[in-house]
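Can you make up a protein sequence with its backbone structure tokens?

===
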Amino acid sequence: MAVTLPRGPATNIIAVITALAFLPVELFELTGRAAIIAGFIPERVNAFAAANITLDIPWLPLWLTPLSATLVHAGWMHLVFNLLMLIFCGRYVEQLLGQGRTILIYVVGAYAAAFGQWAMATLFMTPQDSVIPMIGASGAISALLGTYAVIYSQRGVNPIGPIPAHVVRIVWLAAAWTVLQLLIALAGGFDAFFGGIAVGAHIGGFIAGLLLARPLLARRFGARG
């Protein structure tokens, strides 16, 4: 039986922009250069904080790279998988929250993903590993997935002492997603954990989506007790 997805103009626009940005880079085999110029590089944050900035490479401004990184993908499989997740989760979120809030989740998710990747690099990576560019839209899409999980998850949870049920739900979802990401990365081996898979980005984006879901629902439909 065919599954009919809800309409999602904003989600469709994000998907089209992402695909159009990918095509010339892929066709002219410029992925490596695009990753360096437009990707988010954790070590650049540390270099900026230390005022140790070089201009040898025509980088985009550091503040812009969490967004520009979402437009660079490592190949067709990378792009197609991300677009499938974007269209599925994005349209369902957009159906309930509307276009503007969906875009807000995506943008905030991109920056939260960059922060998560920077935190992962700072805590666990060597300086050599932390210069690996983070590319792809999966961190921003993880934010939509986090919001989708809060809105559409059916399993009830109970409060734990003074902790409300909705907070318990967010903590459980965040913990489950974090463990899943770590297991996926570890299954790929050392190289996958340190650079091959943007574990920190996926975790950061997902948590941002979890935290945004309830406030945005309240603004959309009015405060609820």
In short: The CA atoms of residues 1 and 88 lie 17 Å apart.
